[in-house]
């Protein structure tokens, strides 16, 4: 009897889906389209056994091309609710492979709010499976740490941190209390310098520091480590920093000190509502 009742309820829900959702997710009114996507996201999250499959996910994927930003935004937030739950990751693999390129392109959306949520969604995708995003996908997000719009830059900074700075070598556990050049942060500071030089936006160190300030404060405030990298002799087998790398580290260090002292974003970075058309 329980099974019969469950089947009956599922049949009713499917009837509602086919009778209402399938017609209204393309409604002429953007607000109705947005409500449809928000609701199907809730259905897939609450009752994943029945609704979290490609037959329903495809509607969210298609709607990511909607001409209204508010609707695209609902697609991304609905997907974030699904990717956040690691138990659902296996059911999202086909969707990810099919619509990943669209999500990556949305990081350049003309609506700032949509771009921010696209980056946050990619950060969740990254945490669910590192193999999904190619090096090119990641680089498309990395360069946004230099965006003039702070929320976009901060979201990109968190993505960059999770990808390049958050993994620790198990061997580091024994040296966590070491300081200066021997601290676990030493390699991370070098990684930051290498990234900064490779990005070829050398006049924008303040932007890079501001983008990562919220998620990597402990690293960016480890001035003892930065000083020792500049002043102390390299350890055995360690490559010394080149003059160019030392200059970059000094520039980054000065920007972190200024950020700590002034507590505001660099000149030219704001929180305006729109980007130019993409």
TrEMBL record:
Pfam families assigned: HEAT_SCC3-SA, SCD
GO molecular function per UniProt: chromatin binding
SUPFAM superfamilies: ARM repeat (SSF48371)
Entries under InterPro entries matching the protein: ARM-type_fold (IPR016024), Cohesin_Scc3/SA (IPR039662), HEAT_SCC3-SA (IPR056396), SCD (IPR020839)
GO cellular component, one term: cohesin complex
PROSITE patterns: SCD
GO biological process: sister chromatid cohesion
Organism superkingdom: Eukaryota
Domain SCD, chain residue ranges per copy: 21-106
Record family assignment: Belongs to the SCC3 family.
Name of the protein described by the UniProt record: STAG2 protein
């Amino acid at each position: 009897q329980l099974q019969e009742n469950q089947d009956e309820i599922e049949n009713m829900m499917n009837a509602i889906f086919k009778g209402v959702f399938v017609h209204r997710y393309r409604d002429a009114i953007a607000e109705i389209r947005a409500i449809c996507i928000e609701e199907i996201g809730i259905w897939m999250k609450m009752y994943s056994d029945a609704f979290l499959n490609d037959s329903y996910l495809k509607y969210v994927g298609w709607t990511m091309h909607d001409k209204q930003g508010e609707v695209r935004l609902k697609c991304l937030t609905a997907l974030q609710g699904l990717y956040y739950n690691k138990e659902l990751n296996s059911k999202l693999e086909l969707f990810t492979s099919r619509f990943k390129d669209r999500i990556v392109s949305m990081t350049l959306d003309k609506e700032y709010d949509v771009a921010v949520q696209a980056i946050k969604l990619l950060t969740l995708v990254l945490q669910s499976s590192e193999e999904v995003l190619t090096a090119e996908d990641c680089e498309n997000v990395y360069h946004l740490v230099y965006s003039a719009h702070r929320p976009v830059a901060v979201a990109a900074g968190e993505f960059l941190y999770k990808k390049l700075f958050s993994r620790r070598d198990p061997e580091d556990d024994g040296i966590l209390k070491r300081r200066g050049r021997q601290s676990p942060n030493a390699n991370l500071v070098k990684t930051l310098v290498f990234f900064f030089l490779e990005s070829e936006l050398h006049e924008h160190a303040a932007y890079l520091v501001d983008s990562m300030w919220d998620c990597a404060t402990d690293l960016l405030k480890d001035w003892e480590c930065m000083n020792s990298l500049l002043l102390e002799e390299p350890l055995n087998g360690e490559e010394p920093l080149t003059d160019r790398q030392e200059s970059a580290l000094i520039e980054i260090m000065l920007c972190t000190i200024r950020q700590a002292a002034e507590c505001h974003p660099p000149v030219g970075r704001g929180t305006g509502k729109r980007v130019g058309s993409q």
